[in-house]
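Let's do one together. I've listed all components of the complex below, 861 residues spread over three lines.
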Amino acid sequence: MSKAKFKNPVVKWIDHRLPIFSFMDHELNHYPTPKNLNYFWNFGSLAGIALVTMIITGIVLSMNYTAHVDYAFDSVERIMRDVNHGWLIRYIHMNGASFFFIVVYIHIFRGLYYGSYKAPRELLWILGVLILLLMMATAFMGYVLPWGQMSFWGATVITNLFSAIPLVGESIVTWLWGGFSVDNSTLNRFFSLHFVLPFVIVGVVILHLVALHRFGSNNPIGIDVKGTQDTLPFNPYYTIKDLFGLGVFLTIFAAAVFFFPNFMGHPDNYIEANPMVTPAHIVPEWYFLPFYAILRAIPDKLGGVLFMFGSIAVLFVIPWLDRSSVRSSQFRPIFKIFFWILLADCVLLGYLGAMPAEGIYVILSRIATAYYFFHFLILFPLLPYIEKTKPLPISISEPVLSGSSPASAFAFREKK
Amino acid sequence: MSTKSKTKNNKDEGKRDFLMVSTYAMAGIGAASFAWPLIDQMNPAADTLALASTEIDLSSLEEGQAITVKWRGKPVFVRHRTAEEIKNAQEASIDDMRDPEKDSDRVTNEKYIVLVGVCTHLGCVPLGQKSGDVKGQYGGWFCPCHGSHYDHSGRIRKGPAPTNLAVPSYEFLSDTLIKIG
Amino acid sequence: MNAKPYCFKNKRFIIQSCTILSLFFSSQVCFAAGDKITYPKLDWSFSGITGTFDRSSQQRGLQVYKEVCAGCHGLRLLAYRNLKAIGYNDNEIKAFASENSVNTLNDEGEVVEREARPSDKFVSPYPNEQAARVANGGAYPPDLSLIVKARSDGANYLHALLTGYVDAPDEKKIPDGMYYNKYYPGKLIGMPQPLYEDGVEYADGTKATPDQMAKDVTAFLAWAAEPEMEDRKRLGISVILFLLVLTILSYFTMKQIWAPIKNR
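Okay, and this is what the predicted structure of the assembly comes out as:
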């Protein structure tokens, strides 16, 4: 590290004792980033911004929220009606959860497409799956807080999943509830956990970033950076690109918040929770639908729960399931086709999760669930033996030098 | 490189810097405006503001009696003063008071004194509303926390409090009905 | 040169993903449309991204609520002071509030009634759900504060429901205390037909047909459910304009910054 790079004497003084400025300069300014990243690499920073937005609006909401079964629903309505800009903050938080998941799902599928989970980035990937898991727990508990009908029945159904565990299941559910049904104790602990888990997520995100910066970002062609000719300093090249991406994201997000704030919600959640009446259809939030479909596809209670958790658990081990040494799908013609099938499969599962569990939907859910596990457990390990991968380029910058079109920083052509 | 292309480069750089500064400035303005709703939500909400005025019926308040009502989460003292108390309040010399104010400036109708019942020292509620209370050396109110003595007009006469008991804004809607706030 | 692009094709990838994502979201809509009876789609003044409430319709709607609905249905999340937003002044609101009474404690600690004030919430017709059920033959007239938000396509649903009382088909058995409504899920509803020709007398001379009253009370309740709607849309337009300018500006800045890399 070069010394005396800061001119400001105060910065210099502090940095000598506490090198935060050197750290930021190194990790955010000069940080070498592959020069060929496409727009799908924007979603990591977008997820970070979504997390910060959720935490800020969440803290502010908690200043006005009352975690008690008799007051929770009304206190949320008071936020919507009487608190200054309360409706804005609440709608940002409510829609922010959905957009956070959209961004994170795209981020995950980008990682799957470009093989970002492969060595030496296995821990980076595992930390990412851990973040997803924590996000799901946080989002689930957050949805309970407004204490509407969907809040209550969602909480009842999901906590009851644990009763599938043999022998201790019932005791665990009672312990989760702090009573004999979802009630005030449940609401209170969910509020507490919903408040604290995002900070745990922040901690894991920091580890995720440390792991990322160890080897740097993967890139669309998936080959390692060979030297400085392959990289650009993060600032200004990717700061401005991230800002542009953020602008697009926020415009779409604002359109949802201001004009369709309840599009991704459910009308039943504007009816106060009533433990005596179950709504006609209980549907989880859209981002849980694929998992919900897997749960319902299995005709056995314990089996469904195991498969549902298994669908996330399998993600933890895919760095070892995929035995191909080629990262990017661009050089894996068969893998690429299956990638799109997997994406379509997940979308189908999402659709099926919203449909009633009857007739053709059940059969389709079973096929889709089977494919999901086939993809990771069978296809991933076996495909490398069958698939003939395309030749890899020598380096990231080599095709760039021969490229002539203006878009060549993004699109590299193979030299035959 | 020719000089021509060099000037073009400089021009490009100038344009680039200008664009960069304006983009980041605009992003900064955006972020700062987002802060406002987050700050403003801590100001009193519409339902809190709606409760900011209270009406008090004084018809059953006998001479010499006092009532305490809650207004904006704080006690408000209303005392129906006796002729003697009014005389005391009006005739006291204001020259040597810490916070000189004439009694006539502190009442609308001299029979009723309306005060925010919060000691101006550190926010305790003074005694003197109930008949058995200690009323202090000047017969008005006495703050037990640090010993401030207030007279029949709620003026500070002795003790650490810096100013007189505050008079809230109020109006008489009729002879015996007042609206505070 | 037979340069086959093996690389990632930005555009196609994006288009494909968008298609798939939009399919995903349309599944939500599909679900909402599941077992729904279709009802007429009306052209509400408050729909669309610039839509606002029609003040005179809202005021007529308040009258319908007060004279027809309020006997059974509460509006507990709304305060009398909120009526300022639909064009009433302080004195009118005070007078309106004072027609109701709320319980309070007097100095002796006894429960007494006092006139409602503008800061009070709309007084519900029944003290609690139990009482409401007993008075309505076991059915519970729901609170209307959020009814438009709490039903899918709430405004159209409400209008259809209020005008959906028709003669039952002959084969349909109508149990005691139930009424036939072609727009109600299951077609049997516990609420008797509330709106009849000239059921209220509008101060502004509008003819009080059931359809007109249904429209007015829906407009009023749509506002009750989303009192922030006009502010929201107004702020939304300026926020989006700001973001568009910022996005376009950052796009050109990005192009400038990246130009030397791309043209190398």
